[in-house]
Amino acid sequence: MEYMKVFCVILLAMGCQSMSLTETLDFGPTEVISNETATAYHLGIDMGIIDPEKYSLESFAHDETKVFKDTYNEYMAMNCSHPLDYQEWLIMNNYGILPDTNESMFQRKISKRSTADNKRAFINTVKKGDILISGRGSGGLLGHAAIMTSDYWVLEMPGGEGFMSGIRDNNRQIPKDKWFDEHASDWTTVYRCPDNSVARQAAGWADRNYYNPNGGSTKTIHITYKITPDFSSKNPSYCSKLVVQAYYYGTGSKSVIYIRDKSNAIIIPTTIPSYFRSPYLLVNKGKY
């Protein structure tokens, strides 16, 4: 694979230097960053994933310590028979970076708006069919995704403890204001399909297949949370798969989503926009 070639070139280049991979680079009186961390970061730059103007080495090192390493270990615990090295896993997760903005999902939440104003803006923005992507994650994947099944309700599979063996009855709908409250400490980016009829079709499919076949308010479908490579299955499932499924299966004959191999597809939350085809490419409606 191309990224492995790039990775090998970087390792060879580092091998020509006097430093070893276990040595550290000192970026200030309190910032000590290992060569392993620096190598992973610069690989992301070389692959065009990281924009160093928007995501610094220091920020990456912080996220690596606080999020990436633990999440990678979760992934490895689940996928012993199909292991990825750490750099491959970062690439698979797009380094936790949204590709359309080149911004990290784990960017510190600083807003000119107050929390109350930010919440009000979010509530007034989201509508049926919108896709929500936040920085939280579960099951060895970076990020979390959900879909608006109406102008009020958010459908999601939040995951949680026990994801390795499967979490029974993990699908749920929550009001949009509660979603914001639960994610108040991290950014939620809102994506919208430009075709409103397609968005509403996808939302309806998600509601009927992941909550109630008749579209009612009572939950009658109970889905186990577990990450598997089978894109076609609805049970078990997980957050980002249900979102992409809704736009793949719920939009009739329209060619909205491209999936290369439905038998071997892990949907990463940050990469959801990349599955959409023109003229249905998602529009970023802001982060809240």
UniProtKB/TrEMBL annotation:
Keywords: Signal. Residues 1-18 form the signal peptide. InterPro entries: Papain-like_cys_pep_sf. SUPFAM superfamilies: Cysteine proteinases. This is Uncharacterized protein LOC111358188. It comes from Spodoptera litura (Asian cotton leafworm). The lineage of its organism: Eukaryota, Metazoa, Ecdysozoa, Arthropoda, Hexapoda. The gene is LOC111358188.
